[in-house]
Design goal:
Elements (H helix, E strand, L loop, with lengths): L10 E4 H4 E3 L14 E3 L15 E2 L8 E3 L4 E4 L8 E3 L4 E3 L3 E6 L9 H4 L3 H9 L11 H5 L2 E4 L2 H45 L4 E4 H4 E5 L13 E5 L4 E2 L2 E2 L5 E4 L2 H7 L6 E4 L1 E2 L7 E3 L8 E2 L3 E6 L5 H13 L2 H4 L2 E2 L4 E2 L2 H5 L2 E4 L2 H39 L9
Length: 397
């Protein structure tokens, strides 16, 4: 790393000089009194709080022990930026390093923020090995060099960052609460419709045109009419992500059959049990896009609005109706276009449909506004980190 002048009192150190890797293990976590386990999927990028976990009694193969105050760092796919500070005891995946200060030179409160700096992540990613699931190792992390401020300045920096982090935690808790409210509201509204004998119930195939996408094949990877297509990796709960698009050959006739229009609803046909049937409305995010057979397209007919149909599909996802109608393979649940088409949908009058979607949309708008404020606060935290920990004459230089 380039040599730069250090601020007075700051010292250049290697990560392994001031941080140690905890090697505490438990061969029988339940017997040893642990109740929770944490995997990489329980950690959220950019969030220092562990908000989800598994219960030891439900089965667990992890043995790495962590304690309150220790820092958990995801060594696999480090680019996902998964760092958390434990506030309870448990065991975690072998793909998670459990870190703590080696000595009194580093305040424990500052360690998680050091692990969130761009320099640390860049070092972790740059020293990772493996193509499909790259991992960094402890020796590589321990060699990361940075400038460490004196303890008094560490306390000031930690206090400032902890204050910002506390605000982020409050906002995250509000987002979680509002998300639960949104789902509860949606489930309650459709439960009432399904119980109401005066509301018409139609087969999904009677409310819209149902079609499974075109099967992917090596023979379609080249051709004169390559077109982008959407697949499961692009369709999430309520939105479409176009960051990773693939293309394949579609003839004019196939394009007419499999092309997407504004207002089409796409559902995951094959997914894990908890995600099968996940849906989003296509709003023309990709010009000339088609869809693969891992997705089902629902094109509403006159009897139902796009928004109402999508809300009902969300209801089916949240309440397990899609899982109940799916066929389970080894690790994937398949909704099946025929089974999906035969499911019933409540179809009230258009006025009631619009009233329901307005009610849910209003809650969603408040949720979006809150998430925007959360993103702004995260950006502020990043600027604070940059201004206090990452500077030419300071930490991470």
């Amino acid at each position: 790393m380039p040599e730069v002048a250090l601020k007075k009192g700051w010292t250049r150190v290697a990560f392994g000089d001031v941080v140690k890797l905890s090697r505490e293990r438990s061969s029988n976590p339940e017997k040893d009194g642990f109740e929770r386990f944490v995997g990489l999927d329980h950690m959220d990028p950019g969030d220092l709080k562990i908000r989800r976990w598994g219960d030891i009694v439900d089965g667990n193969t992890f043995t790495s022990v962590f304690r309150p105050g220790q820092v958990l760092f995801g060594k696999r796919r480090a680019y996902q930026r998964k760092v958390a500070m434990a506030d309870f005891s448990g065991v975690c995946s072998g793909d998670i390093y459990v870190l703590e200060p080696e000595n009194t030179d580093l305040l424990p409160e500052l360690l998680p923020f050091i692990c969130q700096t761009d320099g640390f992540f860049e070092h972790a990613v740059g020293t990772s090995a493996g193509s499909l699931s790259p991992r960094t190792n402890w020796d590589s992390l321990a060699s990361y060099e940075f400038a460490l401020p004196p303890l008094e300045e560490q306390r000031k920096i930690a206090k400032l960052l902890q204050g910002t982090e506390s605000l982020l935690q409050v906002q995250s808790d509000l987002v979680d609460s509002l998300e639960r409210l949104r789902k509860s509201l949606l489930v309650d509204l459709f439960d009432r419709l399904l119980r109401d004998d005066s509301v018409c119930k139609l087969l999904i195939a009677q409310a819209g045109l149902v079609l499974m996408g075109r099967q992917r094949s090596p023979k379609y990877e080249r051709g004169p009419s390559l077109r982008p297509y959407l697949r499961v990796a692009n369709v999430f709960d309520g939105y479409i992500d176009t960051a990773d698009l693939n293309s394949m050959q579609f003839s004019d006739k196939e394009f007419a059959q499999y092309s997407l229009q504004n207002g089409d609803i796409l559902l995951n046909e094959g997914q894990s049990r908890e995600l099968v049937g996940r849906s989003a409305i296509f709003h023309g995010e990709v010009h000339g896009a088609c869809f693969q057979n891992t997705l089902i397209r629902f094109r509403p007919l006159e009897v139902v609005t796009t928004e109402f149909a999508h809300r009902y599909f969300q209801y089916c996802l949240y309440t397990g109706c899609f899982v109940a109608n799916s066929k389970q393979t080894t690790s994937i649940a398949h909704l099946g276009v025929k089974r999906f088409a035969k499911m019933l949908m409540p179809v009230p009058g258009k006025g009631q449909q619009e009233s329901i979607t307005r009610c849910v949309s209003s809650t969603e708008q408040r949720l979006r506004d809150l998430k925007v404020r959360q993103l702004r606060l995260r950006a502020l935290k990043a600027r604070i980190v940059s201004g206090t920990l990452v500077r030419d004459e300071g930490l991470g230089a």
